[in-house]
Structure formats: structure tokens, C-alpha cells
């Protein structure tokens, strides 16, 4: 068993099986979560990773020993688990390692109503309980033992996704979805079953060994098969899902990837058409085009930190109807503030239907700047390097520069900006740069990466 600080992350529990994550850990987490949540029942889902079966059984044993009933949902996507948590008003546990390789597994937790559980909202307390159990302590016995049950919520979840669009506005678009042998292979056909789209799925078989390519669509190499198939078939759009199918990336009709920022802007506009004057959230590494477009269409843009626990909290505070992240997570107030790649996908398809223009044309009005994408640099002391970079771009020596410490360091120099954030789990700095055009962006990326090498 690994040290708990290696597997308890900012938003979930995740590690390699069985050396870091095993049945003993899962059982301890089940008991700790049941005590922390204090609810009569917990809904539990898992993705297609082979290790999930044993881990779910162990978690359920721990939770029922702690007095909670456990409702097993079977194979689900993460956004389907969040839906179940909201619809059934029950805490939830999802066994998945998302886009990580096959040897990984983990647990995403939420409270009733799909409220997030992260390092600052309960995960630290759960970790302390787990550490106590693994150290030999025996928790106080529950008044009763919980019971196991089963429930299938896929049809209800699919209907919920479809409720975000008006079927009468949809055209028979051709859609290719690459589900990468992940949970999208089960969920996406259920969602599209009653929609007038022609759907083709690449790698639909549920296989947690990921025999075709990694289930990580933010990496361009993993989009190659989808891009090729979209062009070959003359499809209107391609959809790329990660392993647990809560994230979705778009590929346009020319086979060109669409960034998470652009998708955020497109969905924001669609949501403002349905909810005029609403508040829309975007995280701080989204393009400046996102708040511009929100404001131009009568909405109120609100900037947030990166990460679902922060975004969901700000959604609750502001009443925002939608929030988007550059990483492909899209949050909807009418979906218990939870993220759903499938909802974002059908909203975009409705917008394409109404616009009656190809995505390759439609996207142009949402893309106003050039961005670098996320660039990772290994450094020995990320906080020290961030401080050194801040010193280099002090407004005293760079007139007009503004520094923001909301999440890492954001430096805005007017015609371009960059953000440096430390990784939660590795000695890495994550760099995002945006500028007026591609040559300027490339020059500024070189400027910052040279500086990081100098300071490392």
C-alpha cells in the first residue's frame, strides 16, 4: 500500500492497482465516506477497468459495515453517476481513473445532489479516517448494517441529457464519436437513440485495457483516428470522449480539433439564447474570447479557478447556468451543477442544426486569439520558480503588466497573457499562453520556456 499522500489528490483518490489502490483501501474508504456523508444510502458506479469489480465490492462492504445502504449502478459514466446522485439525492462514489492508463484506478466522491468532495470539502477528513483504519483502529460499530441493492439509471440519464435540446430544431447531422473503449461506448448510444442524428462509434467495446489508443482526448495524438474518419465519411462533427466519458472534445467537419475554450464559448452562447442575461463561468486558462462573447450576448462572465470543486461552488454562489473549462469539462446548473460531456455535445449539435453552417465556419467567430495549449515543464521547486517569474514580470519593470494569484500566477501584458500553475501531483509547472496571433504566441512561449529553463 502506497502512502496516502500519493493517492489522495485534490479532487479524487487515484493510483496504480494493486500497489497503490487495492481492496483494503477501497473498504476503508467505503467506511470513511459513509461516516463522513452520514446519509442512509450511497450510489456507486464503476467504469470498465477490470479492477473495478473487486474495488466496488470492497467499498460496498466498508460502507454497509458503517451503516449505509449501497445502491450499485453497475457500469456507468462519471456524469451518469453525478446524475444519479442528484436525481436520487444520495451521496455517490465513482470508481474510475478517467483518462489514466489501464493500470490505474480510483474513486471520485460526491455528496447528495452531486455536491463535490475535494481536498477542501471533505477529502482530508476521509483520508484521516482511512489512515486510522489502516493503522489498526476500529471505528465505532454502526447501529445497523446496510444492505446492498441495484439500480439501472442509464435510460433516465439519457433522457436528462436530451432534455437540454429541442428535438424539433435538430437536423439529421452525421456524427462520429470516438469513445476509446471507454464508458462512452455504453452511454453515447443511449443518449443518441432518440435523436435524429446518424451516429457512428469508433472503438465502442468496453475494454479497460484500452487496446486502440489512450482514452485521453486532450492529447492530439489520440484524436488521429477520429479526425481521419470524420474526413473519410464527410461527417458534420466528431466527438472524442475520455475513459469515464465525462469530458468531450470536438473535431470539426474538416477534421480539425476544437479547443475546450472554443467549445465553452459556443455552449455559453447557446445557453444564453435559452437563458438570456444569465451568469456564465469560465476558468482562468480559457481564452479571453470566452468572457468577450458572454458579455456580447448579454451574459455576465465570471472567472474561476481551475477544478470542478471550485466551479461548482461558484455556480452555487452566483446562480450561473453554465460553466466551462479549457480541459473539456462543462457544467450545467440544470444538471445539479455537475459536468457532462454528453450534454455539451448535444447542445453544440442543436446550435449547428439551427445555424445551418458547418462547424468549420461557425467556430471562426469564437476564435479570436492564438493559444499554446498546456505545456508541462518539470522543475525541482515549482513554487519558487513561480515566485521568480513573478519577480521578472513585476509591473515596476513591465509597465502595464498585471499579476493575478487566483490559481498559480497569471500575468496579463495587454496584447498577450500567460498562466503558470503547479501540478497537484508532480513536480511540474503547467504553462498556458495566449496572444493576438500564432507567430506572437510562439515567440512568447519561447520567451517563457527559456525563462523556466534558466530558473530551474
TrEMBL record:
<protein>
    <submittedName>
        <fullName>Phosphomannomutase/phosphoglucomutase</fullName>
    </submittedName>
</protein>
<dbReference type="Pfam" id="PF02879">
    <property type="entry name" value="PGM_PMM_II"/>
</dbReference>
<dbReference type="Pfam" id="PF00408">
    <property type="entry name" value="PGM_PMM_IV"/>
</dbReference>
<feature type="domain" description="Alpha-D-phosphohexomutase alpha/beta/alpha">
    <location>
        <begin position="156"/>
        <end position="255"/>
    </location>
</feature>
<dbReference type="InterPro" id="IPR016055">
    <property type="entry name" value="A-D-PHexomutase_a/b/a-I/II/III"/>
</dbReference>
<dbReference type="InterPro" id="IPR005841">
    <property type="entry name" value="Alpha-D-phosphohexomutase_SF"/>
</dbReference>
<keyword id="KW-0460">Magnesium</keyword>
<dbReference type="InterPro" id="IPR005844">
    <property type="entry name" value="A-D-PHexomutase_a/b/a-I"/>
</dbReference>
<feature type="domain" description="Alpha-D-phosphohexomutase alpha/beta/alpha">
    <location>
        <begin position="6"/>
        <end position="131"/>
    </location>
</feature>
<dbReference type="InterPro" id="IPR005846">
    <property type="entry name" value="A-D-PHexomutase_a/b/a-III"/>
</dbReference>
<dbReference type="InterPro" id="IPR005845">
    <property type="entry name" value="A-D-PHexomutase_a/b/a-II"/>
</dbReference>
<feature type="domain" description="Alpha-D-phosphohexomutase alpha/beta/alpha">
    <location>
        <begin position="260"/>
        <end position="369"/>
    </location>
</feature>
<comment type="similarity">
    <text>Belongs to the phosphohexose mutase family.</text>
</comment>
<dbReference type="InterPro" id="IPR005843">
    <property type="entry name" value="A-D-PHexomutase_C"/>
</dbReference>
<dbReference type="Pfam" id="PF02878">
    <property type="entry name" value="PGM_PMM_I"/>
</dbReference>
<dbReference type="InterPro" id="IPR036900">
    <property type="entry name" value="A-D-PHexomutase_C_sf"/>
</dbReference>
<keyword id="KW-0479">Metal-binding</keyword>
<dbReference type="Pfam" id="PF02880">
    <property type="entry name" value="PGM_PMM_III"/>
</dbReference>
<keyword id="KW-0413">Isomerase</keyword>
<keyword id="KW-0597">Phosphoprotein</keyword>
<feature type="domain" description="Alpha-D-phosphohexomutase C-terminal">
    <location>
        <begin position="374"/>
        <end position="449"/>
    </location>
</feature>
